[in-house]
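Dear H.,

Thanks for agreeing to be a second pair of eyes. The structure we're designing against is below in token form, covering all 210 positions.
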């Protein structure tokens, strides 16, 4: 895999400032810790040239598409603090542009999260993990997927996500894979627990298939 994990490819306008005090992070942070325990988010010298992998977000506002997302280069941390999250205040996938604030910059895959939120107003959570078990079983599990020639964090990925939502009849939650992004899997849902449970259910199916 020649692409580099963890490098921000979109145009970022970031304001370095603390997150607004009224934003609650406990639930998001709990699920992020769970994903770390499952090795679905993390950092490992043996994987992806040692870059951190996986990220998680929760929507705050439907009208203006605002969401909280784990920060870039935080994969090595078992538990994140408030400083490790970023607030995306505006995202324009078709222009490859994102506006954010926080004490850390948003994940390099924030634009892909934005492109999922843009598909349906009731999507409240997006989890992107790296899971070889699910990714390699994309066909066996009959999972929807973006094509192998679509790289992460690009406007092409945003367009591919839009296309997937046109062709799939997804309801409250779903899981799909990114075949152009090694081990890349995305789960979304109307809540964090819905997205996470959909993901863990597919992981169990993948392990049962092996
Ligand atoms: Zn990734």
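And this is the sequence the design step returned. I haven't edited it by hand at all.
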């Amino acid at each position: 895999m020649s692409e580099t994990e963890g490098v921000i490819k979109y145009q970022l306008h970031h304001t370095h400032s603390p997150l607004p005090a009224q934003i609650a992070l406990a639930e998001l942070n709990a699920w992020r810790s769970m994903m770390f325990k499952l090795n679905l988010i993390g950092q490992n010298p043996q994987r992806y040239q040692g870059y951190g992998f996986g990220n998680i977000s929760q929507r705050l506002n439907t009208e203006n598409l605002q969401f909280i997302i784990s920060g870039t280069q935080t994969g090595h941390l078992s538990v994140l603090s408030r400083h490790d999250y970023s607030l995306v205040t505006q995202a324009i996938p078709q222009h490859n542009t994102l506006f954010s604030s926080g004490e850390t910059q948003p994940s390099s895959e924030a634009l892909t999260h934005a492109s999922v939120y843009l598909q349906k107003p009731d999507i409240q959570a997006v989890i992107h993990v790296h899971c070889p078990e699910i990714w390699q079983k994309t066909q066996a599990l009959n999972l929807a997927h973006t094509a192998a020639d679509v790289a992460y964090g690009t406007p092409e990925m945003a367009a591919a996500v839009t296309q997937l939502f046109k062709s799939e009849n997804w309801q409250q939650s779903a899981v799909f894979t990114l075949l152009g992004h090694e081990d890349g899997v995305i789960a979304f849902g109307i809540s964090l627990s819905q997205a996470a449970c959909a993901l863990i259910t597919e992981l169990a199916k993948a392990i049962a298939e092996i």
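Two observations from my side: The mean pLDDT is 92. The pocket of zinc ion is lined by residues 53, 109, 128, 130, 152, 181, 184 (CB under 6 Å).

Warmly,
E.
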